[in-house]
Amino acid sequence: MMRHFQHYIDGRFDDADATFPSIDPATGEHWAMMPEARSADVDRAVEAAHRALHTGAWPSMTPTARGKLLMRLADLTATNAQALAEVETQDTGKIIRETSAQIAYVADYYAYYGGLADKIEGAHLPIDKHDMEVWIRREPVGVVAAIVPWNSQLFLAAVKLGPALAAGCTVVLKASEDGPAPLLEFAHLVHDAGFPPGVVNIITGFGDDCGAALTRHPKVAHVAFTGGRATARHIVRNSAENLASTSLELGGKSPFVVFADADLDSAANAQVAGIFAAAGQSCVAGSRLIIEASVKQRFLAILKAKAEAVRMGPPHDPETEVGPLCTDRQRRLIESVVDASIAAGAGLVTGGRAPDRPGFYFPPTILDCDNIAASATTTELFGPVLSVVSFHTEEQAVELANSTPFGLAAGVFTQNLSRAHRMIKRITAGVVWVNTYRAVSPIAPFGGYGMSGHGREGGLAAALDYTRTKTVWLRTSDDPIPDPFVMR
Ligand code: NAD
User: Fold this and answer.
1) pTM to 2 decimals?
2) DSSP assignment, residue 211?
Protein backbone atom coordinates (compact mmCIF):
# COMPACT_ATOMS: atom_id res chain seq x y z
CA MET A 1 0.00 0.00 0.00
CA MET A 2 1.45 3.38 -1.07
CA ARG A 3 1.37 5.99 1.66
CA HIS A 4 0.06 9.40 0.74
CA PHE A 5 1.44 12.59 2.36
CA GLN A 6 -0.05 16.09 2.38
CA HIS A 7 1.49 19.49 2.81
CA TYR A 8 0.65 21.89 5.63
CA ILE A 9 -0.36 25.44 4.74
CA ASP A 10 -2.17 28.02 6.88
CA GLY A 11 -2.95 25.49 9.62
CA ARG A 12 -4.52 22.93 7.23
CA PHE A 13 -3.37 19.69 5.66
CA ASP A 14 -4.23 19.39 2.00
CA ASP A 15 -3.17 18.00 -1.35
CA ALA A 16 -1.07 19.91 -3.83
CA ASP A 17 -2.18 20.10 -7.46
CA ALA A 18 0.61 17.69 -8.37
CA THR A 19 2.24 14.72 -6.68
CA PHE A 20 5.47 12.78 -7.10
CA PRO A 21 6.60 9.36 -5.89
CA SER A 22 9.23 8.85 -3.20
CA ILE A 23 11.67 5.95 -3.45
CA ASP A 24 12.68 3.61 -0.62
CA PRO A 25 16.51 3.68 -0.86
CA ALA A 26 16.78 0.20 0.67
CA THR A 27 14.84 -1.38 -2.20
CA GLY A 28 14.76 1.17 -5.00
CA GLU A 29 10.92 0.85 -5.03
CA HIS A 30 8.30 3.63 -4.82
CA TRP A 31 6.72 3.58 -1.38
CA ALA A 32 4.79 6.88 -1.01
CA MET A 33 3.28 9.79 -2.91
CA MET A 34 4.35 13.32 -1.98
CA PRO A 35 2.57 16.64 -2.59
CA GLU A 36 4.52 18.67 -5.15
CA ALA A 37 4.23 22.36 -4.32
CA ARG A 38 4.44 24.61 -7.36
CA SER A 39 4.41 28.38 -7.48
CA ALA A 40 0.68 28.74 -6.63
CA ASP A 41 1.12 26.58 -3.47
CA VAL A 42 4.28 28.49 -2.56
CA ASP A 43 2.43 31.75 -2.91
CA ARG A 44 -0.39 30.49 -0.68
CA ALA A 45 2.13 29.41 1.96
CA VAL A 46 4.05 32.70 1.93
CA GLU A 47 0.82 34.72 2.03
CA ALA A 48 -0.32 32.67 5.03
CA ALA A 49 3.01 33.23 6.79
CA HIS A 50 2.82 36.95 6.01
CA ARG A 51 -0.72 37.23 7.39
CA ALA A 52 0.26 35.31 10.52
CA LEU A 53 3.22 37.64 11.05
CA HIS A 54 1.03 40.75 11.09
CA THR A 55 -2.44 39.66 12.20
CA GLY A 56 -4.06 37.13 14.53
CA ALA A 57 -2.64 35.66 17.70
CA TRP A 58 1.07 35.39 16.88
CA PRO A 59 2.22 39.06 16.77
CA SER A 60 0.45 39.87 20.03
CA MET A 61 1.68 36.78 21.85
CA THR A 62 4.27 37.41 24.56
CA PRO A 63 7.73 35.92 23.98
CA THR A 64 7.07 33.70 27.03
CA ALA A 65 3.93 32.31 25.40
CA ARG A 66 5.86 31.71 22.16
CA GLY A 67 8.46 29.88 24.18
CA LYS A 68 5.77 27.67 25.75
CA LEU A 69 4.57 26.64 22.28
CA LEU A 70 8.13 25.67 21.39
CA MET A 71 8.39 23.69 24.64
CA ARG A 72 5.18 21.87 23.74
CA LEU A 73 6.66 21.09 20.32
CA ALA A 74 9.79 19.79 22.08
CA ASP A 75 7.66 17.45 24.22
CA LEU A 76 5.69 16.20 21.22
CA THR A 77 8.91 15.62 19.27
CA ALA A 78 10.39 13.62 22.14
CA THR A 79 7.21 11.56 22.56
CA ASN A 80 6.98 10.83 18.83
CA ALA A 81 10.72 10.45 18.16
CA GLN A 82 10.56 6.75 17.37
CA ALA A 83 7.64 7.10 14.95
CA LEU A 84 9.37 10.01 13.18
CA ALA A 85 12.61 8.04 13.09
CA GLU A 86 10.88 5.15 11.34
CA VAL A 87 9.50 7.45 8.66
CA GLU A 88 12.88 9.13 8.14
CA THR A 89 14.62 5.76 7.89
CA GLN A 90 12.05 4.52 5.39
CA ASP A 91 12.26 7.59 3.16
CA THR A 92 16.00 8.39 3.30
CA GLY A 93 17.70 5.08 4.14
CA LYS A 94 19.37 6.61 7.17
CA ILE A 95 19.80 3.87 9.77
CA ILE A 96 17.28 3.58 12.58
CA ARG A 97 20.02 3.68 15.22
CA GLU A 98 20.93 7.17 14.11
CA THR A 99 17.47 8.55 13.30
CA SER A 100 16.01 7.53 16.67
CA ALA A 101 18.91 9.02 18.64
CA GLN A 102 19.07 12.16 16.51
CA ILE A 103 15.34 12.93 16.64
CA ALA A 104 15.24 12.47 20.41
CA TYR A 105 17.98 15.12 20.50
CA VAL A 106 16.09 17.36 18.03
CA ALA A 107 13.54 17.79 20.84
CA ASP A 108 16.30 19.42 22.91
CA TYR A 109 16.80 22.04 20.20
CA TYR A 110 13.15 23.08 20.43
CA ALA A 111 13.37 23.13 24.23
CA TYR A 112 16.53 25.25 24.09
CA TYR A 113 14.90 27.83 21.81
CA GLY A 114 11.67 27.66 23.82
CA GLY A 115 13.70 28.71 26.86
CA LEU A 116 15.45 31.42 24.86
CA ALA A 117 12.31 33.06 23.46
CA ASP A 118 11.90 35.47 26.40
CA LYS A 119 15.61 36.15 26.78
CA ILE A 120 16.09 37.95 23.48
CA GLU A 121 16.63 41.40 24.90
CA GLY A 122 16.81 44.87 23.42
CA ALA A 123 18.98 47.59 24.99
CA HIS A 124 18.79 51.02 26.53
CA LEU A 125 21.53 53.36 25.30
CA PRO A 126 23.45 55.87 27.50
CA ILE A 127 22.84 58.49 24.83
CA ASP A 128 24.87 61.72 24.67
CA LYS A 129 21.81 64.04 24.77
CA HIS A 130 20.21 65.16 28.05
CA ASP A 131 16.61 65.27 26.80
CA MET A 132 16.42 61.99 24.94
CA GLU A 133 15.70 58.38 25.86
CA VAL A 134 17.03 55.98 23.25
CA TRP A 135 16.53 52.26 23.17
CA ILE A 136 16.76 49.35 20.80
CA ARG A 137 13.92 46.94 20.20
CA ARG A 138 14.58 43.55 18.67
CA GLU A 139 11.82 42.64 16.25
CA PRO A 140 11.33 39.52 14.08
CA VAL A 141 13.01 39.83 10.71
CA GLY A 142 9.81 38.73 8.92
CA VAL A 143 8.74 35.73 6.86
CA VAL A 144 11.53 33.15 6.71
CA ALA A 145 11.98 30.68 3.87
CA ALA A 146 13.76 27.66 5.34
CA ILE A 147 15.14 25.18 2.80
CA VAL A 148 16.77 21.90 3.76
CA PRO A 149 18.51 19.02 1.95
CA TRP A 150 17.65 15.34 2.32
CA ASN A 151 20.05 14.30 5.05
CA SER A 152 18.87 14.90 8.64
CA GLN A 153 15.84 16.93 7.60
CA LEU A 154 14.27 17.03 11.06
CA PHE A 155 17.52 18.20 12.60
CA LEU A 156 18.29 20.77 9.90
CA ALA A 157 14.73 22.09 10.16
CA ALA A 158 14.97 22.41 13.98
CA VAL A 159 18.07 24.62 13.80
CA LYS A 160 16.07 27.02 11.64
CA LEU A 161 12.54 26.75 13.06
CA GLY A 162 13.67 26.92 16.69
CA PRO A 163 15.48 30.29 16.56
CA ALA A 164 13.12 31.77 13.95
CA LEU A 165 10.02 31.06 16.06
CA ALA A 166 11.75 32.14 19.27
CA ALA A 167 12.43 35.47 17.56
CA GLY A 168 8.76 35.80 16.51
CA CYS A 169 9.17 35.11 12.78
CA THR A 170 6.82 33.00 10.68
CA VAL A 171 8.20 30.29 8.43
CA VAL A 172 7.65 28.45 5.17
CA LEU A 173 9.76 25.32 5.43
CA LYS A 174 10.58 23.49 2.22
CA ALA A 175 11.52 19.84 2.67
CA SER A 176 13.85 18.29 0.12
CA GLU A 177 12.20 16.45 -2.76
CA ASP A 178 14.41 13.48 -1.75
CA GLY A 179 13.01 11.93 1.43
CA PRO A 180 10.50 14.67 2.45
CA ALA A 181 8.25 12.34 4.49
CA PRO A 182 9.72 13.03 7.97
CA LEU A 183 9.02 16.77 7.73
CA LEU A 184 5.52 16.28 6.31
CA GLU A 185 4.86 13.92 9.23
CA PHE A 186 6.40 16.40 11.69
CA ALA A 187 3.86 19.01 10.49
CA HIS A 188 1.24 17.11 12.52
CA LEU A 189 3.21 17.83 15.69
CA VAL A 190 3.45 21.53 14.80
CA HIS A 191 -0.32 21.50 14.38
CA ASP A 192 -0.91 19.66 17.67
CA ALA A 193 1.43 22.01 19.54
CA GLY A 194 -1.07 24.78 18.79
CA PHE A 195 0.88 27.30 16.72
CA PRO A 196 -1.60 29.75 15.16
CA PRO A 197 -2.41 29.01 11.48
CA GLY A 198 0.23 30.25 9.05
CA VAL A 199 3.04 30.56 11.62
CA VAL A 200 4.67 27.36 10.32
CA ASN A 201 3.94 26.04 6.83
CA ILE A 202 5.60 22.86 5.56
CA ILE A 203 5.76 22.04 1.86
CA THR A 204 7.96 20.09 -0.51
CA GLY A 205 8.74 20.27 -4.19
CA PHE A 206 11.57 20.60 -6.67
CA GLY A 207 14.31 23.20 -6.49
CA ASP A 208 13.91 24.95 -9.81
CA ASP A 209 10.16 25.38 -9.32
CA CYS A 210 9.11 25.34 -5.66
CA GLY A 211 12.54 26.43 -4.31
CA ALA A 212 12.97 29.22 -6.84
CA ALA A 213 9.42 30.54 -6.31
CA LEU A 214 9.99 30.58 -2.56
CA THR A 215 13.33 32.38 -2.59
CA ARG A 216 12.12 34.95 -5.15
CA HIS A 217 8.90 35.69 -3.29
CA PRO A 218 8.62 39.43 -2.50
CA LYS A 219 7.19 38.73 0.97
CA VAL A 220 10.13 36.58 2.11
CA ALA A 221 12.54 38.57 4.27
CA HIS A 222 15.17 35.94 5.05
CA VAL A 223 16.26 32.68 3.43
CA ALA A 224 17.83 30.10 5.73
CA PHE A 225 19.37 27.49 3.46
CA THR A 226 21.25 24.23 3.96
CA GLY A 227 22.46 22.43 0.87
CA GLY A 228 25.00 22.52 -1.91
CA ARG A 229 27.17 25.35 -3.19
CA ALA A 230 25.64 25.53 -6.69
CA THR A 231 22.13 25.79 -5.22
CA ALA A 232 23.33 28.48 -2.80
CA ARG A 233 24.38 30.61 -5.75
CA HIS A 234 20.88 30.32 -7.30
CA ILE A 235 19.37 31.24 -3.96
CA VAL A 236 21.52 34.33 -3.52
CA ARG A 237 20.61 35.45 -7.07
CA ASN A 238 16.91 34.86 -6.45
CA SER A 239 16.90 36.52 -3.05
CA ALA A 240 18.51 39.58 -4.65
CA GLU A 241 15.09 40.29 -6.26
CA ASN A 242 13.75 41.08 -2.85
CA LEU A 243 17.06 41.94 -1.14
CA ALA A 244 16.24 39.21 1.38
CA SER A 245 19.04 38.31 3.76
CA THR A 246 20.48 34.80 3.63
CA SER A 247 22.21 32.32 5.89
CA LEU A 248 23.96 29.52 4.01
CA GLU A 249 25.04 26.20 5.50
CA LEU A 250 26.87 24.47 2.69
CA GLY A 251 29.10 21.51 2.12
CA GLY A 252 32.58 20.59 3.26
CA LYS A 253 35.66 18.49 2.62
CA SER A 254 36.71 18.42 6.21
CA PRO A 255 40.24 17.53 7.29
CA PHE A 256 40.83 14.95 10.00
CA VAL A 257 44.40 15.50 11.19
CA VAL A 258 46.10 12.78 13.24
CA PHE A 259 49.52 13.34 14.83
CA ALA A 260 51.79 10.44 15.78
CA ASP A 261 51.33 11.15 19.51
CA ALA A 262 47.52 10.72 19.35
CA ASP A 263 45.68 7.82 20.95
CA LEU A 264 45.43 6.00 17.62
CA ASP A 265 42.66 3.59 18.55
CA SER A 266 40.45 6.38 19.86
CA ALA A 267 41.26 8.54 16.79
CA ALA A 268 40.33 5.62 14.53
CA ASN A 269 36.95 5.30 16.26
CA ALA A 270 36.38 9.03 15.76
CA GLN A 271 37.40 8.65 12.12
CA VAL A 272 34.87 5.85 11.66
CA ALA A 273 32.21 8.12 13.21
CA GLY A 274 33.41 11.00 11.04
CA ILE A 275 33.20 9.28 7.67
CA PHE A 276 31.20 6.05 7.87
CA ALA A 277 28.38 7.10 10.22
CA ALA A 278 25.28 8.11 8.24
CA ALA A 279 27.08 6.41 5.29
CA GLY A 280 29.16 9.59 5.04
CA GLN A 281 26.06 11.66 4.16
CA SER A 282 26.97 14.35 6.60
CA CYS A 283 28.07 17.90 5.83
CA VAL A 284 30.83 17.58 8.46
CA ALA A 285 32.09 14.21 7.20
CA GLY A 286 35.80 14.01 8.04
CA SER A 287 36.50 12.87 4.51
CA ARG A 288 40.21 13.75 4.29
CA LEU A 289 42.48 11.87 6.68
CA ILE A 290 45.76 13.78 7.08
CA ILE A 291 48.04 11.45 8.97
CA GLU A 292 51.61 11.86 10.26
CA ALA A 293 53.77 9.70 7.98
CA SER A 294 55.49 7.79 10.79
CA VAL A 295 52.18 6.21 11.93
CA LYS A 296 50.37 6.06 8.60
CA GLN A 297 50.64 2.29 8.05
CA ARG A 298 49.79 1.49 11.69
CA PHE A 299 46.76 3.80 11.66
CA LEU A 300 45.52 2.50 8.29
CA ALA A 301 45.72 -1.08 9.56
CA ILE A 302 43.53 -0.18 12.58
CA LEU A 303 41.14 1.75 10.39
CA LYS A 304 40.90 -0.95 7.72
CA ALA A 305 39.99 -3.53 10.37
CA LYS A 306 37.31 -1.22 11.79
CA ALA A 307 35.94 -0.36 8.32
CA GLU A 308 35.69 -4.02 7.36
CA ALA A 309 33.91 -4.84 10.62
CA VAL A 310 31.18 -2.24 9.94
CA ARG A 311 27.80 -3.94 9.47
CA MET A 312 26.21 -2.78 6.21
CA GLY A 313 22.57 -3.73 5.87
CA PRO A 314 18.91 -2.69 5.83
CA PRO A 315 18.40 0.65 7.58
CA HIS A 316 15.48 -0.58 9.73
CA ASP A 317 17.65 -3.27 11.36
CA PRO A 318 18.93 -1.91 14.71
CA GLU A 319 22.17 -3.86 14.20
CA THR A 320 22.97 -2.05 10.94
CA GLU A 321 25.77 0.52 11.05
CA VAL A 322 25.88 1.60 7.40
CA GLY A 323 22.66 1.65 5.37
CA PRO A 324 22.00 2.64 1.77
CA LEU A 325 22.66 6.07 0.33
CA CYS A 326 19.58 8.23 -0.10
CA THR A 327 19.57 8.22 -3.91
CA ASP A 328 20.94 6.22 -6.81
CA ARG A 329 22.26 9.52 -8.25
CA GLN A 330 24.46 9.85 -5.16
CA ARG A 331 25.74 6.30 -5.43
CA ARG A 332 26.64 6.77 -9.09
CA LEU A 333 28.57 9.97 -8.31
CA ILE A 334 30.54 8.20 -5.57
CA GLU A 335 31.32 5.25 -7.78
CA SER A 336 32.57 7.44 -10.61
CA VAL A 337 34.86 9.50 -8.34
CA VAL A 338 36.26 6.38 -6.66
CA ASP A 339 36.93 4.79 -10.08
CA ALA A 340 38.57 7.97 -11.41
CA SER A 341 40.75 8.26 -8.29
CA ILE A 342 41.94 4.67 -8.58
CA ALA A 343 42.67 5.28 -12.28
CA ALA A 344 44.71 8.35 -11.22
CA GLY A 345 46.85 6.14 -8.94
CA ALA A 346 45.02 6.04 -5.59
CA GLY A 347 45.56 2.81 -3.65
CA LEU A 348 42.37 1.00 -2.64
CA VAL A 349 42.74 0.08 1.03
CA THR A 350 39.22 -1.31 1.39
CA GLY A 351 35.74 -1.12 -0.17
CA GLY A 352 35.41 0.62 -3.50
CA ARG A 353 32.67 -1.36 -5.20
CA ALA A 354 28.88 -1.29 -4.78
CA PRO A 355 27.51 -4.67 -3.68
CA ASP A 356 25.28 -6.63 -6.01
CA ARG A 357 21.97 -6.18 -4.18
CA PRO A 358 18.86 -4.01 -4.58
CA GLY A 359 18.99 -0.56 -2.98
CA PHE A 360 21.61 2.18 -3.13
CA TYR A 361 24.38 0.64 -1.01
CA PHE A 362 28.08 1.56 -1.09
CA PRO A 363 30.59 0.07 1.36
CA PRO A 364 33.02 1.92 3.66
CA THR A 365 35.92 2.80 1.36
CA ILE A 366 39.46 4.02 2.05
CA LEU A 367 41.68 5.41 -0.71
CA ASP A 368 45.39 6.05 -0.21
CA CYS A 369 45.88 9.27 -2.18
CA ASP A 370 49.42 10.16 -1.06
CA ASN A 371 51.25 12.23 -3.68
CA ILE A 372 48.58 11.94 -6.37
CA ALA A 373 45.95 14.34 -7.68
CA ALA A 374 42.82 12.28 -7.00
CA SER A 375 39.36 13.83 -7.20
CA ALA A 376 38.43 11.89 -4.03
CA THR A 377 40.60 14.38 -2.07
CA THR A 378 38.82 17.46 -3.43
CA THR A 379 35.21 16.54 -4.35
CA GLU A 380 32.58 16.55 -1.62
CA LEU A 381 31.22 13.02 -2.05
CA PHE A 382 28.62 12.85 0.67
CA GLY A 383 29.33 9.14 0.98
CA PRO A 384 31.42 6.64 2.99
CA VAL A 385 34.69 7.38 1.20
CA LEU A 386 37.86 8.45 3.00
CA SER A 387 40.92 9.80 1.17
CA VAL A 388 44.28 9.58 2.94
CA VAL A 389 47.37 11.79 2.62
CA SER A 390 50.39 11.99 4.94
CA PHE A 391 52.60 14.76 6.33
CA HIS A 392 55.99 15.06 8.02
CA THR A 393 55.74 18.46 9.74
CA GLU A 394 53.07 20.45 11.53
CA GLU A 395 53.43 23.13 8.85
CA GLN A 396 52.56 20.57 6.15
CA ALA A 397 49.59 19.37 8.20
CA VAL A 398 48.20 22.92 8.34
CA GLU A 399 48.77 23.43 4.62
CA LEU A 400 47.00 20.19 3.73
CA ALA A 401 44.13 20.88 6.13
CA ASN A 402 43.54 24.30 4.57
CA SER A 403 44.00 23.20 0.95
CA THR A 404 40.28 23.39 0.18
CA PRO A 405 37.86 26.22 -0.63
CA PHE A 406 35.52 24.74 2.01
CA GLY A 407 35.84 25.48 5.72
CA LEU A 408 33.06 23.77 7.61
CA ALA A 409 34.74 21.57 10.21
CA ALA A 410 38.04 19.95 11.16
CA GLY A 411 39.33 17.33 13.58
CA VAL A 412 42.73 17.42 15.29
CA PHE A 413 44.09 14.43 17.21
CA THR A 414 47.13 14.97 19.43
CA GLN A 415 48.11 14.69 23.09
CA ASN A 416 50.27 17.81 22.79
CA LEU A 417 48.31 20.71 24.25
CA SER A 418 50.38 23.53 22.78
CA ARG A 419 50.24 21.96 19.33
CA ALA A 420 46.46 21.56 19.67
CA HIS A 421 46.17 25.29 20.40
CA ARG A 422 48.36 26.21 17.42
CA MET A 423 46.27 24.01 15.12
CA ILE A 424 42.96 25.43 16.43
CA LYS A 425 44.15 28.95 15.54
CA ARG A 426 45.51 28.12 12.10
CA ILE A 427 42.79 25.87 10.68
CA THR A 428 40.28 27.80 8.57
CA ALA A 429 36.98 26.20 9.57
CA GLY A 430 33.90 27.23 11.52
CA VAL A 431 34.14 24.24 13.89
CA VAL A 432 37.29 22.53 15.20
CA TRP A 433 37.03 19.34 17.23
CA VAL A 434 40.08 18.26 19.25
CA ASN A 435 40.34 14.56 20.15
CA THR A 436 36.68 14.12 19.24
CA TYR A 437 34.53 14.46 16.12
CA ARG A 438 30.92 15.11 15.03
CA ALA A 439 29.72 16.51 18.37
CA VAL A 440 26.89 19.08 18.20
CA SER A 441 24.67 20.89 20.69
CA PRO A 442 21.86 23.45 20.59
CA ILE A 443 24.06 25.63 22.82
CA ALA A 444 27.03 25.78 20.41
CA PRO A 445 27.06 27.85 17.19
CA PHE A 446 27.67 25.89 13.99
CA GLY A 447 28.55 27.09 10.49
CA GLY A 448 31.27 27.43 7.91
CA TYR A 449 34.02 29.59 6.47
CA GLY A 450 34.58 30.24 2.75
CA MET A 451 32.63 28.00 0.39
CA SER A 452 30.96 26.30 3.37
CA GLY A 453 28.72 29.35 3.71
CA HIS A 454 27.95 32.08 6.19
CA GLY A 455 25.70 32.61 9.19
CA ARG A 456 25.58 30.41 12.28
CA GLU A 457 23.01 27.94 13.55
CA GLY A 458 22.73 26.99 17.23
CA GLY A 459 23.17 29.14 20.30
CA LEU A 460 21.88 32.61 21.12
CA ALA A 461 23.51 34.24 18.08
CA ALA A 462 21.29 32.20 15.76
CA ALA A 463 18.14 33.61 17.36
CA LEU A 464 19.49 37.15 17.06
CA ASP A 465 20.04 36.52 13.33
CA TYR A 466 16.26 36.18 12.99
CA THR A 467 15.71 39.64 14.49
CA ARG A 468 16.28 43.14 13.24
CA THR A 469 16.76 46.15 15.46
CA LYS A 470 14.58 49.20 15.70
CA THR A 471 16.19 52.24 17.31
CA VAL A 472 13.65 54.36 19.18
CA TRP A 473 14.28 58.06 20.05
CA LEU A 474 11.95 59.65 22.59
CA ARG A 475 12.33 63.32 23.53
CA THR A 476 11.62 63.96 27.19
CA SER A 477 11.64 67.77 27.13
CA ASP A 478 8.39 69.78 26.93
CA ASP A 479 10.23 72.83 25.58
CA PRO A 480 9.56 73.71 21.96
CA ILE A 481 12.05 72.24 19.50
CA PRO A 482 14.78 74.86 18.98
CA ASP A 483 16.36 75.81 15.65
CA PRO A 484 14.83 73.31 13.15
CA PHE A 485 17.77 73.84 10.73
CA VAL A 486 20.32 72.37 13.07
CA MET A 487 20.62 68.63 13.44
CA ARG A 488 20.55 67.70 17.11
P1 NAD B 1 20.86 20.68 -2.85
O2 NAD B 1 21.53 22.00 -2.77
O3 NAD B 1 20.75 20.01 -4.17
O4 NAD B 1 19.35 20.78 -2.29
C5 NAD B 1 19.05 21.34 -1.04
C6 NAD B 1 17.67 21.95 -1.08
O7 NAD B 1 17.67 23.06 -1.97
C8 NAD B 1 16.56 21.01 -1.55
O9 NAD B 1 15.41 21.22 -0.76
C10 NAD B 1 16.32 21.48 -2.97
O11 NAD B 1 15.02 21.22 -3.45
C12 NAD B 1 16.55 22.96 -2.84
N13 NAD B 1 16.85 23.64 -4.12
C14 NAD B 1 17.46 23.13 -5.21
N15 NAD B 1 17.55 24.07 -6.18
C16 NAD B 1 16.98 25.20 -5.67
C17 NAD B 1 16.78 26.52 -6.19
N18 NAD B 1 17.16 26.87 -7.43
N19 NAD B 1 16.20 27.42 -5.39
C20 NAD B 1 15.82 27.10 -4.13
N21 NAD B 1 15.97 25.87 -3.60
C22 NAD B 1 16.55 24.92 -4.36
O23 NAD B 1 21.60 19.77 -1.80
P24 NAD B 1 21.48 18.21 -1.58
O25 NAD B 1 22.25 17.51 -2.64
O26 NAD B 1 20.06 17.84 -1.36
O27 NAD B 1 22.23 18.07 -0.16
C28 NAD B 1 23.58 17.87 -0.03
C29 NAD B 1 24.32 19.16 0.24
O30 NAD B 1 23.88 19.75 1.46
C31 NAD B 1 25.79 18.87 0.45
O32 NAD B 1 26.59 19.82 -0.20
C33 NAD B 1 25.95 18.99 1.96
O34 NAD B 1 27.23 19.25 2.43
C35 NAD B 1 25.01 20.10 2.27
N36 NAD B 1 24.70 20.10 3.71
C37 NAD B 1 25.21 21.10 4.50
C38 NAD B 1 24.95 21.12 5.87
C39 NAD B 1 25.48 22.21 6.78
O40 NAD B 1 24.93 22.38 7.86
N41 NAD B 1 26.51 22.95 6.41
C42 NAD B 1 24.18 20.11 6.43
C43 NAD B 1 23.69 19.11 5.61
C44 NAD B 1 23.95 19.12 4.24
Assistant:
1) 0.95
2) I
